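INSTRUCTION: Work out how this chain folds

Token vocabulary: learned, describes local backbone geometry

RECORD BEGINS BELOW THIS LINE
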Amino acid sequence: MTDPQSGQISAEQAQELAAKASDRHRKLSPFWMSLMLVLSMSSVFMAIYVNFNLGIWIGIVPLETQYFYAMLGALLPLVFILYPVWPGVGAPDRVPWYDAVLAAITFFIACYFVFVGESILDEGWEYDAPQHAVYMTYFIWAIGLEAARRAGGLIIFLICLLFSLYPIFAPYAPGFLEGEANKWGDTSTYHVFGTESLIGVPMEAFASLVAGFLIFGVALQFTGGGTFFLNLAFALLGKRRGGPAKVAIFSSGLMGSMSGSVITNVLTTGVMSIPAMIRVGFRPAYAGGVEACASTGGVLMPPIMGATAFVMAVFLEIPYSDIAIAAIIPSLLYFFALFMQIDAYSARYHLSGLPENELPSLRDVLRDGWYFVAVFLLLIVMLLYMQQEAQAPYYATALLLMINQAAKQHRWGWRELYNFIVGVGKLFTELAAILAGIGLIIGSLSLTGKVGTIAYELVSFAGDSTLLLLVMGAATCFVLGIGMTITAAYLFLAITLAPGLAKSGLNDLAIHMFILYWAMISFITPPVAIGAYAAAGIAQTNPLKTGLEAMRLGTIIYFVPFFFVLNPALIGIGPPLEVAVVFVSALVGVTLVSAGLQGYLIGAGPLGGASSPLHWLLRVALFISGMLLALPGGEIIGFTHMELNVTASIIGLPTVALTWLINRGAR
């Protein structure tokens, strides 16, 4: 391991810190660990077998539903092996008999469904199943809920339970949610045998797209990818003004895109970036806020954006590359706003970077980790040019592992291979369990046919006001993001809110990106702000103060979703000239907004004396001017780009000139 003060981190440190996010798992005995390895490898093999159509060569081509049941059969039993009934209950290194029984029954029932998969479809078991199969569906329904509880938490369980029972108790629901009752057996068979519930969109996305990228992410972690990106960031930016904070933006952005987890990102990169920021003069709460914002933004940055983006691709029935391209401009604006604020803050308080002799050499970093760049280039080419979303991560993983074994620095032995398979198995198990529970929510709304009713009622309540409907949607996304996983919140709103927004004439992809962004905001917004609270633990500072700093630093993320949903040119949809105009305007606007938030304008200096009324007047003027520049014109806004830019210039140009003159006179 290297010295933390030097700004470098070893692969072992990164893996140990990432493991903190997995401390809910039991420590398994050799027997159970062997079983876990077998089931984990089976799920990986099945994903490769189906996504590469190997069945054509072997002569065994499973139905899609058979594949989904097989994945559930491999992964749901692992929930009961890995997770205790309640955290801290029972022996931490022993699987109790009742969990072993649940795991065994789940496995055998799922295998039975695979065996009779053709009969399920041909004979319509979704609506008329044999009685013995109905009893099995009751068990799998309950198992899906319990698996979601153990892997996702009590709130996820309660929400999934409530919605999965909704078709049965619909006559007792209030208002427009009232509906006709469905029988227990009909509801249960629809949940398990239908293609809109347990094995619906969430499981389809996991099995067809998400699995490969999860394998790639774990491979990057265990081959030292996190180490490379962090050291690359220190080599490039560590000695710059406020360098450690800029390192956090760069490294956390890349790591977040790779891992898809805000908390894991904070725990891996934050342990190095936060102490380095404090060391050069950043306040602890500010340093924690920087890391929380950077880690949150990383999950929204292409080419890998976390599981929710892949679910979105399946839900919208569009290539994942379309979503990755659409996310480029919004993520650039977000990270550009962070960078400009940090630079302004550093200039205002005269914060330097780290000494050059404590930083890794760029040449050494690239020499040792050049192949990570090569692997990412292969991934991007296959995603955007070759349009092979399902196969791309497997090719990238294969290339990464081959080069890794040829290199000496991170070459694997049997122990490293073992840890890799265990890491994949744990990640697969957690996500599959949560997505199975989420599928029950979708299935209930599909069975009752209430999706259209909810959309109609939302539009009516908003009085046909698109802006009011968007504000209502943003508030709902934020609240759901507090208690649910991002994927769960997204899917729920994609079904209920998105159709209502679509009726207002908004672009479908922009609507779904809007929902994704606002579901993420709870990570940096008090009172929850779990990303900021995780960073506060490393910074050893007040969590609420860290959350408020993160909220201020991430201000632009609260507005960017409104910008691109009102004018999809900001997600690259529209004439190239319009896209270029709104993007450039947004960059200038973000610069002014950042200056207003931090009280310092790059190139002009501080905005008056900190205690004078003029200081706050200049800050407010720059903030308003920047927001007008960043806001894209259009029919819904009621103003053209030109009108907004002219108004912004009338406010902003005198403010910039006055700031420059004041600071020139002060010299």
Q: What stands out?
A: Residues 29-203 form one domain. The CA atoms of residues 144 and 437 lie 6 Å apart. The beta strands are 600-601, 605-606. Residues 414-448 form the longest helix (35 residues).
